[in-house]
Write a structure and sequence with these properties.
CATH class of one domain: Alpha Beta
CATH topology of one domain: Rossmann fold
Bound molecules: beta-D-glucopyranose
Strand order of the largest sheet: 2-3-4-5-7-10
Shape: globular
CATH architecture of one domain: 3-Layer(aba) Sandwich
Radius of gyration: 26 Å
Length: 728
């Protein structure tokens, strides 16, 4: 027998600095497969550790201490899959905490997102993980969705482009995992809800961004907890095999969502599930027998293992191990990047009378419950552990000096009024925390798990009882994780709304900064204050970034990645306890525009301290064939006094389609930085197949019609430029 090879590093014996060509990667994966026994192969299809013992550890605080490992084979130096989470950075201690994905969606800047991915990928590898679980691309169907902050927005095109950029960056260093496939857009009901969807909304709205990351070469896809059209996503052959692997040609592997992501070994294996995570559960217990009895073919096991080996070989090789020193985690360059991203993600929604930027010479009152609270996002699986978090108060103090910053936490109205009146401007920090929104970790999680996974041993059962007793003492946290869930309201908390009214009355120069994972309804108070901005959950450097924007050191250029409605009734039906729901074509800006309902702030909207003008929209050809590409150019000019960024957006409307279509759909965008008076010609390309709709019978149909390119600064820009073209 060969000597054991130490694989207790992220890449084991497969790691080489020399890149392998594609055929060599495939040959190496096949060679390893041929050396594995059937028993070893089956073992590669589930997590390496025992279910209940690990679960108990996880619930008592071990979550986020090390990667989850599956399929390590010492004999052959196969290090296995080493998973760690995201999306706002690597969750392991000391890694950089970036603004949440929704904030990064607001940058509309794929090149910047690729740099974020690059930083995350490096940190992942340096911390001993090889699979990043943070490419969360569930479409924001409704802003109450608990995990809204983990995704990039509501629009499939924008979401796909941002996700592809994250994958590109991460996969320079490690494998990336896109999740949760598919239609996992509500949170509290995620373990129970069945989503009914017909093929048109499935292909046009809920899957394009998954397809986009598959085209980008994503190594792994995580199946979702919910069921779709009556089949759990973890057992869903249509999704996993027919669409993902066959239709799209996905070469990577599918992993379950954790613990409750699959409930039956045979159904899952036959549907195309490759890896059950994170523990020894159904595959461990049932697969050896199912394979021995011929109920799951050996060929299916080989296929699953080959998929994992292929990606492991691909990502182990060709990268210089010396680049991945642990000191890269949370390093200065990455923290600087976190600050830049936070600056670029801030969306200025209102700025009457040019209140912002504030003069660095005046006094500022920083007010509110969240003014001095580290608030980087929810407390679920994406919870990071940064070395510090700069709060808004700390950021403003660092920028202005202690003496020019007054502070009131909002609990004492007298103190609030005194601070607001004594300052030249008041900055109110309002919004949500992990208590209001986030991944839903049910307080009775262990009991629910017991319903779906094989039972614990006697010793485990005794330990379990202890943990469950300690957990029921609190309904706000589950071990180190918080309960989270879908939001119960789209407006701010009543105390925040009352505070805004009070402060606005005391100081007319009031700025409201909102921390949140998605849209907020602001109707009760938005006309009472001159300035509003979206801060989202801005990461560990967020306080500095806020100060940079408030004081004009950075010019805001973020744009909303989701529509901000005036009323909850304008949105699709949402019941956070639903057991069944139907998803159709209509949500977000498409729905509001179809219904003729004006939003509070449109999709794609955001102001700047400078001004921009678009001119000279030109189409290369007025008529194109169904396989051609539409090329459009437009000039964008900075007409104001400061350098700044504009996000130019190209939408297409189909005129006279035989089916009902969204009034217009985003097809391209570009974030452009311009000095005062500078102008730039932006070129957009839209392949005609992007204009197709999905027909239940004929599948993708590119209609020969007249279309209209609409180029503007947001989805409802009254100054947008328009040009018509024909598709033959
Ligand atoms: C979440 C996933 C996450 C996994 C592992 C699950 O509960 O839904 O997004 O990657 O836990 O942390």
């Amino acid at each position: 027998m060969s000597a054991q090879v130490n694989v207790d590093t992220a890449f084991g014996a497969l790691e080489t600095a020399q890149p392998l060509a594609e055929p060599q990667i495939e040959a190496k994966a096949q060679e390893l497969l041929a050396q594995l026994s059937l028993e070893e192969k089956i073992k590669m299809m589930y997590g390496d550790v025992s279910c209940w013992t690990s679960l108990i550890g996880m619930m008592s605080g071990a979550y986020g201490t090390k990667p989850y490992v599956a399929g390590q084979v010492h004999r052959l130096g196969i290090a296995g899959i080493r998973f760690s989470d995201g999306p706002r950075g690597v969750i392991l201690k000391g890694a950089t905490t970036f603004p949440v994905a929704m904030a990064r969606g607001a940058t509309w800047d794929p090149a910047l997102e690729e740099r974020v991915g690059d930083a995350i990928g490096k940190e992942m590898r340096a911390l001993g993980a090889n699979l990043f679980g943070g490419v969360c691309i569930n479409l924001l169907r409704h802003p109450a969705g608990g995990r809204a902050q983990e995704t990039f927005g509501e629009d499939p095109w924008h979401l796909g482009e941002m996700a592809a950029a994250l994958v590109r960056g991460v996969q320079r260093h490690v494998m990336a995992c896109a999740k949760h496939y598919a239609l996992n857009s509500m949170e509290n009901a995620r373990f129970q809800v069945d989503v009914t969807v017909s093929r048109r909304p499935l292909y046009e709205v809920y899957l394009p961004h998954f397809r986009r990351v598959v085209e980008e070469g994503v190594a792994c896809v995580m199946s979702a907890y919910n069921s779709v059209n009556g089949a759990w996503c973890g057992h869903n052959k249509v999704l996993l095999t027919d669409i993902l692997k066959k239709r799209w040609g996905f070469q990577g592997f599918v992993v379950t969502d954790w613990i409750m992501g699959m409930r039956d070994a045979k159904a899952a294996a036959l549907a195309g599930q490759d890896l059950e995570m994170p523990f020894r559960m159904h595959f461990h217990r049932d697969l050896p027998r199912l394979v021995a009895e011929g109920e799951v073919p050996v060929a299916r096991v080989d296929d699953a293992v080959l998929r994992m080996l292929r990606q492991q070989v691909r990502f182990a090789q060709g990268r210089d191990p010396k680049l991945y020193d642990r000191s890269v985690a949370g390093c200065e360059a990455h923290r600087r990047l976190a600050r830049e991203v936070a600056q670029k993600s801030i969306v200025l929604l209102k700025n009457e009378g040019g209140l912002l930027p504030l003069s660095p010479k005046g006094k500022v009152a920083v007010i509110g419950r969240l003014a001095d609270r580290p608030n980087t996002g929810d407390g679920g699986s994406s919870k990071t552990q940064p070395d510090y978090v700069v709060t808004p108060l700390q950021g403003l103090r660092a920028a202005l000096g202690e003496e020019r910053v007054l502070h009131a936490d909002g609990s004492d109205l007298g103190q609030v009024m005194a601070a607001a009146q004594a300052a030249d401007a008041a900055v109110l920090i309002v919004g949500y925390t992990h208590e209001d929104e986030g991944e839903y970790i049910p307080p009775n999680l262990l009991a629910r798990v017991a319903d779906v996974v094989p039972p614990p041993t006697q010793a485990e059962a005794a330990q379990l009882q202890g943990v469950m007793q300690s957990m029921s003492a609190s309904d706000k946290t589950v071990g180190a994780l918080s309960v989270g869930g879908d939001r119960t309201s789209l407006t701010l908390r009543p105390e925040d709304e009352a505070l805004i009214q009070a402060v606005a009355a005391a100081n007319p120069r009031t700025v409201v900064a909102i921390m949140s994972g998605s849209a907020v309804i602001t109707e009760v108070w938005r006309r009472r204050v001159p300035a509003i901005l979206m801060l989202w959950y801005p990461g560990m450097e967020g306080g500095h970034a806020l100060a940079d924007v408030l004081l004009g050191k950075a010019n805001p250029g973020g744009k909303l990645p989701c529509v901000f409605p005036k009323r909850a009734e304008d949105l699709p039906f949402f019941d956070r306890d639903a057991t069944a729901i139907t998803y159709d074509l209509w949500h977000g800006h498409h729905k509001l525009e179809r219904d003729g309902v004006a939003p509070a702030f449109p999709f794609g909207y955001g102001l700047s301290y400078t001004a921009f003008a678009l001119s000279d929209l030109q189409l290369e050809r007025a008529e194109i064939g169904p396989q051609d590409t539409l090329r459009a150019t437009v000039t964008v000019r900075n007409t104001g006094p400061r350098a700044g960024d504009e996000v130019v957006q190209l939408y297409v409307a189909a005129h006279g389609s035989r089916v009902e279509r969204p009034p217009k759909e985003l097809k391209a965008f570009a974030r452009v930085s311009l000095a005062p008076s500078e102008s730039r010609v932006v070129t957009f390309e839209v392949p005609a197949p992007q204009l197709a709709y999905f027909d239940e019978q004929w599948e993708w149909v590119i209609e020969p019609l007249e279309y209209e390119a609409i180029v503007g600064a947001h989805s409802l820009d009254p100054q947008a430029l328009r040009a018509r073209f024909l598709v033959r």
